[in-house]
Design goal:
Blueprint (H helix, E strand, L loop, with lengths): L1 E5 L4 E5 L32 E2 L2 E12 L2 E12 L5 E2 L7 H31 L6 H27 L5 H17 L10
Antiparallel strand pairs: 1-2, 3-6, 4-5
Helix pairs in contact: 1-2, 1-3
Length: 187
Amino acid sequence: MRLIKLCAVCAITILCFAAKPVKAQSFRTLTEADFLGTPRPNGRGVVAYTNCTIDFKYQANHSNGEYILHFNVRLIVNNYKSWLDRSRITTNAQLAEILKHEQGHYNIAFLEQQEVLRAMSRTRFTSNYRQEAMDIFNNIDAKYKQLNQNYDQDTEHMVNRQQQRSWDIYFAKRLQTMPPENANLDY
């Protein structure tokens, strides 16, 4: 089953088919090298776009009347869909600010990935596991889609520096207080 959801800043792809269970990758910091796509002209003054994919796969095993799902939830930065309009970036300080704002979009996708992993690992699935897994993912995805929209609205795409600082503090706290990556996720 394949469902593609495009968010304002992150594209989320869900692929549900058998896969070997693996753990999610570690958090990382975006760099200029993550933005290899061609800038799209727009009237909103956007200077950069970050495109992330959450690749969600699982394998179901039936045992003792219960369905056990083994998950692989990967977060991918799509460098050739992510872009910076380098013609509008005039200083290294401006580039650093833009990368910091775009990091916020990656942070949101990372937080979503980690919440999906935790929610799925805590769920007892029935024979309706396909729908149950999709419902969990869709609820979490809607939450983070709204967070992404709020982030761009509040920061006015990083123009509102006071709001950007508030969001930077929010991300730092969320990432700092998050359970260790993959905690209790030994499949």
